[in-house]
Specification:
CATH topology of the largest domain: Rossmann fold
Shape: flat
Number of strands: 13
CATH superfamily of the largest domain: Hypothetical protein af1403, domain 2
Distance between the termini: 105 Å
Radius of gyration: 61 Å
Structural class: alpha/beta
Largest sheet: 5 strands, mixed, barrel
CATH class of the largest domain: Alpha Beta
Strand content: 15-25%
Strand order of the largest sheet: 1-2-3-5-4
Order of helices and strands: HEEEHEEHEHEHEHEHEHHHHHEEE
Amino acid sequence: MSHVFSVAELTSAIKEMVEVHFPFIWVRGQVSNLSRPGSGHIYFTLKDEQAGLQVVWFKNSQPFSRQKNSDPASTLENGEDVVCAGKIGVYAPRGTYQLIAELVQEQGLGDLFLAFEALKKKLQGFGYFEQERKRPIPFCPDRVAVVTAPTGAVIHDFMRISQDLGLGSEIRVYPCQVQGDKAPSEIARSIRLANEHAWAQVIVLIRGGGSLEDLWAFNDEQVAQAVFESELPVLTGIGHETDTTIADLTADKRVATPSQAAQSLWPQKTDMVQDLDQLENYLIRNYDKFIQSLTEKVNNLSKALGWLSPEHRMQRLGERLESLEKNLIRNSKDLWQAKSDRLNDLEGRLSSKFGPDYWGIKLKSLDYLEGRLLNSSASLIRQKENQLDIVSERLSGLDPYGPIKRGYSLVTLSKNRQFLRARTDVHTGDELEIAVVDGKVKARVE
């Protein structure tokens, strides 16, 4: 018998299969049944002539804009042709599937995004974006090739900023269109021309901000190829920080704006002057220390050389010998005097210690101690005899057979050897043992 699914089991299996096979997809269609509840989420149906697809666009996935009606979330309307990007999810409580949108664009813009993603995937497979091939941009270059439009605010801002930075560099502008159908080929031609001249140290590719269509020339394959094949390192500053083009991804380094491109090439002149002053002070300070160290070393070597000369050495040895001779004579006299004083002191102390008076005093002391010893011994013996008599009397009083000797008898029960103390301790027929002064007598209770 085949397995019978519960509704939850079947829905869970479908959900897992759908989400695995459609992790991220692009879908185009027309908006209908648009709904904007108070939660901020957007619900609508994406349909064409043959089918419809439920779409939910959560608030946290919608773009944020400070200007009203300037983003797709606020301008989305029924009947509008759009392209949605997201993942397929299954809503289990209703048993329906839906597209969870992460991006919703007008169909024209959607086509551009699709083309962008397709070209990005293609060039990524060719290794255009590999970090290993990217080269460092030279710091403070002397010769810079700028590929951009020859007129407009961008090139003027770049030139103005470059004059305020660095120590003075040569800049050559390789003019080209940066917008329109002819722009990609002209941009690629200018990059290749700068490489042919082999004059510059770096190529700077810049353009001001604009819409996706305005910047589309920098998403062209021939521009990416020219950047990829460039022998010179390429720095890009295209649009604003949120704009990322295929040329940016291919370049050796990308900055957010054209102004930042100039700022990343050269340091501030004031900073360089300050650094130069610090280096000068550091050099002077260390030079003075170096000269002082050499002077001290020369003086020390000069002193050491004079100290090690033969004449000076013989003089020092003579002075040392004279000093040792004086010390020997002085120490010898002091030694004999100390020994003589010590001998006289010991002789006096011995005479005073062991003279006739000394032995008389010792004999008197011995007699006195002998008398004390005899008196103490006799007193101790008398004390111990008295204690012995007292203990003997106490011990004889505790003798259980003492009263028998005085005419009494001691009765015990034969069955348990206990003394008879009261009438109630015995019963008729009990055997008794009576101890008297000259033996024991057995008896029976009647």
